[in-house]
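Structure ticket #2291
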Amino acid sequence: MATAEAVHRVPTRVGELRVRVEGAGPVAVLWHSLYVDDGSWDRVAPALRAERTLVRITGPGHGGSEARRAPYTLDDCAAAAVEVLDALGLSGPVDWVGNAWGGHTGIVLAAADPGRVRSLAAFNAPVQALSPQEAKGPRLLVALYRTLGPIPLAVNALLRALLSETTRTSDPEAVGYVTRCLRGANRRGLVNAMRSISLQRPDLRPLLPGIDTPVLLVATPGNPLWTPEQARAAAALMPRAEVAVVERAGHLTPLEAPEESIELLRALWASATAIP
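Resolution: structure written out below.
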């Protein structure tokens, strides 16, 4: 029997985080991408909450979570997720589902505290740090957003980076949601997140061989920072990782391709359950 939805505000080392809990069954933690919030899971949550207790964490500086000025790391985010679970009385292993930032956080948690992660799904989460060339665009966006806020130039650039052309031209609901997130964000909090999580993201590849849990790495053909080839190379470093490529989706795959995302997660969870 499904539990009623509850919203919590949980103090953590990265600030007070908004946490939405819904569903029934084993626990699955959902952590979103930069620039959006826990609403990015709305298209997959109705199906998933029938078989999992979903713990949707909104990261610092996003949505209804606190926006702190101090920089933070992926290690801090992983530790904050454990603080959330502990505050909710959830001590067992979880199925971790992360998009970009959330995928990075899950990788760090699975490496640092493997007993807390039963399975790991990382959608569009590049494991390599940004190269100097790749960082030029994000640095410009940080400067632009910090100085002028969500002006059309910045919003449109981020829409192109986050959503596939198919989504931008045929899914006004998704475009509207991401636009609202960008325009309504706390400027200082978002800039701090962009610096802390994107520009200062470390190379996560050294962690991969030590993650001995079922892992799904999801890539899309149009993402230059996380190509299917890069995902396969990362999976080759991990004992039990698989790669899925979702066509016609961009950076926000669970929002843009919810049905495919649901199928992939169900298959991952079934494989994790089948392992003795």
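Closing remark: The radius of gyration is 17 Å.
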